[in-house]
Design brief:
By secondary structure, the protein is mostly helical. The chain has one domain. The chain has 6 helices and no strands. The two termini are 31 Å apart. One of its GO terms (cellular component) is plasma membrane. It is found in: Cell membrane. Keywords: Cell membrane, Membrane, Transmembrane, Transmembrane helix. This is DoxX family protein.
Length: 123
């Protein structure tokens, strides 16, 4: 029995969601273990990364959480990485992770959580 792409799509989407969310959660955990103060811009980012990453791994509230995290990463790119001299060069300004997370989360906000997301069980 042949397997077509539409059959695998929800599982590939779930793999993207879980992998990206886990990596994102690790960024928050690194900040937490590094002693970033909660009452700071980096502390706010840390909270979003920990809570948002965990929610996305579980597949809870995928669309709104992914949309918020996409915005966080766009903000991070423009505030921390982009400058007038190297705006279009994320490898030079070290913003490639922020740009990738931004667009992965934007895609998840549009596509949903895929297979194994707990959002499907809430309905």
């Amino acid at each position: 029995m042949p397997v077509n792409a539409s059959t695998l799509r929800p599982y590939a989407l779930a793999l993207l969601r879980v992998t990206a969310a886990y990596m994102f959660f690790l960024h928050g955990a690194m900040k937490l273990l590094g002693g970033v103060p909660w009452v700071s811009l980096q502390g706010l980012a840390m909270g979003l990364e920990l809570v948002g990453g965990a929610l996305l791994v579980l597949g809870l509230f995928v669309r709104p959480v992914a949309f918020i995290l996409s915005g966080e990463m766009a903000f991070a790119y423009f505030i921390a990485h982009a400058s007038a001299s190297n705006f279009w060069l994320p490898l030079k300004n070290h913003g490639e992770s922020a740009a990738l997370f931004c667009f992965i989360f934007l895609y998840l906000a549009a596509a949903g959580g895929g297979a194994f997301a707990l959002d499907g069980r809430r309905r």
